[in-house]
Design a protein that fits this description.
single chain; alpha/beta; Rossmann fold; 2 domains; 7-stranded mixed sheet; 22% strand
Length: 241
C-alpha cells in the first residue's frame, strides 16, 4: 500500500522505515515542524514526578541543563513508546500510561498523592489533552514548562499532490487530532476534497478520526492508541485487498 506519513521528523522517517520493512510504500509529508525553546527552566524544586506526553519533550530534555536533576525523579509517560525513549535517555523509574493523556491523568491520580509535591509536565506549546486542568481538579499542583512548539505546514509537497490527484495514494496515517485537522484543512486549501474522500484514514484514536470527519473519507481507528496497532490495520487491509 502507498501510504502518506504525516508525523514530524524524525518520527516520520522512523515510521516510514517500519512501513517499508512491512512491504508498504511510505510517502513522507510531515505536517508539523518542531521548533525547540531554549533556556526554559524546568521548575523542579519540590517536584515529586515528571510527566511526558511526547517524545519531542524528551528530545528537548536531552540537551537541557537540568537533565541530570530530571533523571533523579520518577517519570510518567503517556504510552509504551515514550516510556521506552525515557528509559533510553537514562530515567530509572518510568511508569508507562495506557496511551492517551486522559488515561494518563487517571493513572497519576491513582498512583500519587497531591500533597507529596508538584508535578512537572514537560510540554509542547499545544497539547492534545488538558492534563493540567484534569490534575488540578484532583488537587495536584502542575507546572508546565513549554520546551518546544510544533509549527503547522501550510502546503503539501507538489509530489504528494500529484499522487493524490492521480489517485495513487491508498491512505494516510494520522497520529494526533491536530495533525488530522491540519490535513483536512490542507485538503480544503488545495481543492482536493474529492480526492481525499477516496483515501483510507488510519487514525490513532477516535479523537483523531473526529478531526478528519470533514473529508468524508473512510476512517479506521486503532484498537489501542499505539503505532503498532496502526501498522496492524495497514497490514490487514493490504492482505485483504
Amino acid at each position: 500500500m502507498r501510504v502518506l506519513v504525516t508525523r514530524p521528523e524524525p518520527d516520520a522517517t522512523r515510521q516510514a522505515g517500519r512501513l517499508a520493512a512491512r512491504g508498504h510504500e511510505p510517502v513522507l509529508a510531515p505536517l508539523l515542524a518542531i521548533e525547540w525553546a531554549s533556556g526554559v527552566p524546568l521548575e523542579l524544586d519540590g517536584a515529586q514526578a515528571l510527566i511526558v506526553t511526547s517524545r519531542n519533550a524528551l528530545r528537548a530534555l536531552a540537551s537541557h541543563r537540568d537533565l541530570a536533576a530530571s533523571l533523579q525523579l520518577p517519570l510518567f509517560a503517556v504510552g509504551e513508546a515514550t516510556a521506552k525513549a525515557a528509559t533510553e535517555l537514562g530515567f530509572t523509574t518510568v511508569i508507562a500510561g495506557p496511551g492517551t493523556g486522559e488515561e494518563l491523568s487517571r493513572l497519576i491520580a491513582r498512583t500519587l498523592k497531591p500533597n507529596a509535591g508538584a508535578l512537572v509536565h514537560l510540554a509542547g506549546e499545544t497539547v492534545a489533552f488538558d492534563l493540567k486542568s484534569a490534575l488540578q481538579a484532583k488537587g495536584f499542583t502542575l507546572r508546565q514548562p513549554v520546551l518546544y512548539r510544533a509549527v503547522a505546514a501550510t502546503r503539501l509537497p507538489e509530489s504528494v499532490l500529484s499522487l493524490l490527484n492521480a489517485s495513487k495514494l491508498d491512505g494516510v496515517i494520522l497520529m494526533s487530532p491536530r495533525t488530522a485537522a491540519i490535513f483536512a484543512a490542507l485538503m480544503v486549501r488545495h481543492g482536493a476534497l474529492t480526492q481525499a474522500s477516496r483515501l483510507d484514514c488510519y487514525c490513532l484514536s477516535a479523537a483523531v478520526a473526529q478531526a478528519v470527519e470533514p473529508l468524508r473519507a473512510r476512517a479506521i481507528v486503532a484498537v489501542r492508541p499505539y503505532e503498532d496497532d496502526i501498522l496492524a490495520l495497514l497490514d490487514s487491509d493490504a492482505a485483504s485487498s
